[in-house]
Every structure is written in structure tokens, then in C-alpha cells.
Amino acid sequence: MGPGCRRGDIGFVETTSQMADIAPSTGLAPATETLLKHYRAQVMTRRVYSILVALGVLVALFLAMNYANAANSGKFFDRLPYMFDFVKNFLPRDPLEIFRAMFDLPSPYFDGSAKYDYTSERVYITVNLYIPHLIYQLIITVNIAIVSTIIGGTLAFCLCFFAATNLVGAGAVRWFVRRVMEVLRAFPEIVIAGMLTAILSIGPIAAIVAVSLHTIGALGKLFFEVVENADMKPDEGLKSVGATWLERVRYAIVPQVLPNFVSYGLLRMEINVRASTIIGAVGGGGIGEVFRLSIGRDYAAQTYAIIIMLLVTIIVIDQFSGWLRRRLVGNQGFDIARGSV
Amino acid sequence: MTAISSAERARLEKKFPDVFKRSFFKQYGLPLGIGLTLAYLVFCWFFFNVGPALQNGKWDRASIYVQDWYSWRAQPRLRFGDDGVVTAQWSSRGQYPEGANIPWLTPHDDGSMTAVFDGEANRLDISTTGVDVYIDGVAWPVTITADGAYAPENAPPAIEQDRDKVWVHYGFAGQAEIRDNQVAVQRRFFGWANFLYDPRSVLWGNDLFSSIGLAFSGDQVVEGKPNIQLIWEQWLGNQAWQHADILVKLFQTLVMAFVGTLLATLIAFPLAFFAARNITQNRPTNWLMKRFFDFIRSVDMLIWALFFTRGFGPGPIPGIAAIFLTDTGALGKVYAEALENVDDKQREGMKSVGAHPVSVNRYGVVPQVLPVFVSQSLYFWESNTRSATVIGAVGAGGIGLKLLETMGTNSDWDKVAYMVLLILFVVFLFDNISTAIRQRLIVGPGQAAH
């Protein structure tokens, strides 16, 4: 547990100095003195190494930032004033415009241009009842996320048992399934989306397939780790009465791991909402694409409307799934599962 | 084994009511849930118009795109000259240098030309008056007149008459379209064409092994330049594959992830101390800091990326800014949670000897949380290497944008495959590096839970 514990072990007297553990001290027995000397030497070595590593990282950071600045089309300090100007000028004509854009209400500034034309893209359900365009796109994006989580989660559920050491003895099967999951996880989503866009033209199917495939890889890894940590006693009990492999999985493993699976699935859904927004921007349709277009065309009111809607949606979904997860598995550190993103 | 009596049965039912009389939800929950999910999927099938979209898909092109990942096409047009000579015409993207000796395409002295597809038994003998199509050794003469090309009667299905032109299909090896004035040949080969050197290079025609041989041989291909340098320059400068450009873009993506995560770590580290309730005992500060983390975390990475692309122009800076902002929020939240879970004994020990508050945190808190912090940051670095690709595609530059541009041409799928392989390689490499560092950092099982 670091130097904190060892300091106590050798009866070292604490001073208020910053370099407490290598400060001089007197009045110790010779044996303790030697011990102290060695301890100090080790602490010094450690510190030198730590400082060297920290310096190395900082130098790398500096070089990388320099490189990024040189590679950018506008230099950071040259563009900074433009950035502030952009933020300052990128404002709707009055705050209410944002809500008019959000709910497709006619704008008083309408001059025939598309910038203030909020009403023409309403999605009518009945003659009078309509869904505002932006909200409809948001619904598409959220649905893409939910569908991909369901499809990806189901396939990951089927695959994960074949990757778990405690259920599958055959090394080759496990190795193969795990590699498949790894490739699915690391495969760039935009390539799948782009390939399908080339075949099916722009639309949500490309986004669904891309996000689903990634979900299989990401959830599959988390799932099989849960399965590997499952209690094997129920499994042994079923084995002793001659149950088949499928029955053992169904009645011994699944009931144990299901709450964790659902919890991971919900966490994945939060991530997928963000992922489907981004994939939408590169050709998957939905709110991401509308956002990319509106910020590119300087439609301030629409842009802010989308930012607010996305922020609210993401916070609501995060809170809801967090609440559900806490009910399912208690307060475990699941927020940290981002490593599998 | 006998059936249990009714009294025993009643006793068991009374003793374990939660097994025999389960609530409605427990009894029918699973089938109900599955049914609802299926109903939802059916609804989405219609909501997203999946059926029509699949029907209208260009599935014939799909197989070509997939084949393009691992094979390449040579597409010369064999033009019929007025003097009876057949000449091969290549587009600007042709894979052979001017005047190269192409093994499968031989011109003859009488002006005709032979295109070999799958062995001598499957070939085209092309002259300006007619094309002899050989399929499995049998010749089928296609006659060419002034107004079109016509296949013979009862030709096999591989030869297809399409109005006034004739299609010949040789499966994977390729196809040919015979018209009145030209034969458009499409010959497919396994592998990537000119991956090492483009046709304009002096080294064109060398494969990997002969390149290695050249690198160690004494004779200089170009006077005054070591072969190994020449090979390196010619490979990087390959016009068809743009190795230099792709590697630079990949490096930009890695820089985005690295700088973004590291900056986020450096900023989130001090801020997390203000957000942790046990360290800064000031409720409003904790609350404000946590809400600040929540806010910048919840604004989508896409929004930050597009926003900064507008401000700074395309390049790594918007990518860094997007990763930096989202991850400052996410890391700050995770760090604050780790800080709130520290063991208070070490802090108390430091306080009891009258240490300065900074020392209390330096020696009482940091040694406990540092491994967790570093391992979290490594996790984020790992995942950001992946997300930097996507962020790049929306305008932040790097390999993501390059991928999107390459896919937009719809013909360079081999280059897409190459970039995907590079990305997979880099992601696996970084995964393994970060896993190795993390395993060295975290020893105790108690901390491994994080």
C-alpha cells in the first residue's frame, strides 16, 4: 500500500516536512539506522523513476500537442479569436426561436429561407396532430440505439457462454469466439455504416447494423466475464443429476447472471444513444445528421434546440437506466465499465 | 420413489408459498418480456422501412464491394482500330506501367489479342471481326458487325446476349463485355495490386522478397542512393496506396486520443478533489463541481467535435477538444467516486501529526487512489483510440475522415481494408499495452474491483 504503511513499520518519527520520509533523524540504534538508510535509498530511486516517467509523459504531451497544432488546418492561437467570435455570433435572434425550432412553430423572422422555415418538415400523424421534425429525428436515433442494444445483446448473450472458461472446455472454441468478439469490438463502426450506406443508401439500417455489431463485441466480453465469475455449485448440482449442457446453462448459470447482464445491457444502451448520434452524422440518418447539417449551415436556433434536446435525452436515459441498474444489482461500480466501449 | 400424498403436498405448498404460488410477474414475466420485445422489433421493422430498403438495396454491387476488399480488378478497354488492330486502353488508375508485358493479355502480330482468364481453356481470342470465346476448352464464336456483337445460337449461360452486346462471365476470374467497337475486360486477381510500388516507380514489379533482396544487395538501382532508402521512399510515395498520407492520418488519430485523454486526466485530477465530499467539506462546491462534470459529460462528443471544427477548422485540435471535454467530465466523476471511497485511516494518521492539508492529501490520499486513477485513464485512452476514428469522420480529421473519403469513391475498398487492418492492429496493440500497465499497477483484489 505504498510508503504509507512501511513508514509506520520502522518506527519513523514524522516531521511536518514535505519530504517526510527522507528527512534526517537521530538517536536510532545502528541496525535501525542501516535499515533506514536502505529504505531511504529505495524511496529515492522510486522518486527518481517517478519523476522521469512524469517528465517523459509531459514531454510526449508537449510534442504531441505541437504536432496536432501543426497538423490542424487553423493554428490554435490564430484561430482562438475566431472561435470566440463564432460562439458570440452563433446566437438565435431571440431565445424563443430555439423552442420554435424545437416544436416546429412558425417563426416571426420567416423570410422564405430555409433557416427560419421550421414548419415545413412537420411529420403529420393525423390532419392536425404532428410530431415536430427534430423530435421525430430524435425518436429515430433513440430507437436505433434501443434496437441495436436488443439485437446486439441477444447475440452477445448466445455467444458469451461459448467464451467462458468454466462452461466450455474446448480451447479452440473459446479462442475463436473471443477473437470474434475482439474484432467486432475494434472494427471501426464507420466502415460498416459506410459499406451498408453504399449498398442500401442512407438510412437507419446502416446505423443499426454498425452499432449492433459493435454491441455484440462489447457486451460479449462483459457477459462472459460475468459468467466466469458465477458460482459453480448449482452447475455441479445439475451435473450430478445428469443434466445436459444446455439445461445446466439455463437453470444454473442464467438465473445468476441475468441481473448483471441486464445491468450491462442498460449501460450499453446509454452508450449506444451517443454512438447512434455519431453514426447518424456520418450517414446513418437521425438527429446526428440534422445536427451536422444545421451547424454547418449556421442555423443557430436549430443547433441550440438539438443540443438542448440531446442533453435532456441523454441525462434522462442515464438517470433512468442508473435507477433501474441500482434496483437490479445494487450500487456496484458499473459506471466504470467504459473500458469496453 | 413414490408419489407424495395429498397431505404431504398440502404441507409443502403451505411451507414454500413463494415457490408454488408465484406472483403473476414472476410466472409470466419472461414470456411477456420476450413477447413485448418481439412486438417492438416488429414495430421498428415498419418504422424504419426495413423491408423496402432491403428490397431496393443494390445487392449485385454488394458482392463486388466485398470482393474488392481482398482482390483487385484490371479493367482495360480493348478498342477496335479501323486498321484491324486491337489496342488496350487503360484508365488513369491502371495498374500497369506504359508498355509493360502483361502475362494474361498478349497482342499478336496480326493485330488480334488474347485475354486469358482461367487457364488456356478459358480465354478470349479478340480480333476486330469476331471474338472466339473459349469456355472450358470449347470455342464459341461471337460475331461482330457494324451495329453490334452477337452470340452464337445455343450458347452456354456464361455467354449472355444483352441487346446488341454480349456478356461473358468467368466467375471470380472476371468478365468481358463485347460490343461492336470494343471489348471491356474485367480481370480479377486475388490480393492487393501495387501495394508496394505504383506503376510509375522504378521499383515496380518487385515483390516483398525481391525488395528485401535489393535492400541487402550492393548494386544501387538509382546511382548515389542506398537501396534501402529508395525502397522506403518509393513505398511511402506510392500514389495508388498513399502510404505516407494514411500513416500520417493514423498518427493524427492516435495523437488526438493521447492528448485528449492526458489533458482530461490532468484537469480532472485536481477538480475531483473539489468534488469529493470527504476531501472538500463544502457541500455547494461538491454539488457544483459534480453537476459541472455531469454537464460536460452529457453533451455528446459529436456536438463538441462539430462545434470545435467550426471554430478551429478541421484537424486534430477539434478532436482533442472533444475528447478532452467529454472525458474531463467522465474521468472527474469516476475519480471523485474513487476519492470518496478512500480509507480514512491514512488521512487521519497524517492529520494527527499536524500535517499541512496539502501533505494530508499527498501522503494520505494520493498513494491510495493513484493506481485506480491511472488505470481508469488507461481504460479511457484505450476506448478513445477507437472513438477518435469516428470523431475524425465527422470533421476532426485523422484516419476517420480518410476512411470516409475513401469509402465515398466506392471503388477503393482494398484501401479501406488496409486502413481497417491498420486500425485493428493499433487498437489491439494499445489494448495490450494498457492491460499490461494496468495489471502491474493494480495488485490487490480490493482495488481490482474498480
From TrEMBL, chain B:
Keywords: Membrane, Transmembrane, Transmembrane helix, Transport. Residues 250-434 form the ABC transmembrane type-1 domain. The keyword Transmembrane helix applies. The chain crosses the membrane at residues 28-48, 254-280, 301-325, 416-433. Its main location: membrane. Belongs to the binding-protein-dependent transport system permease family. This is Phosphonate ABC transporter, permease protein PhnE. The gene is phnE.
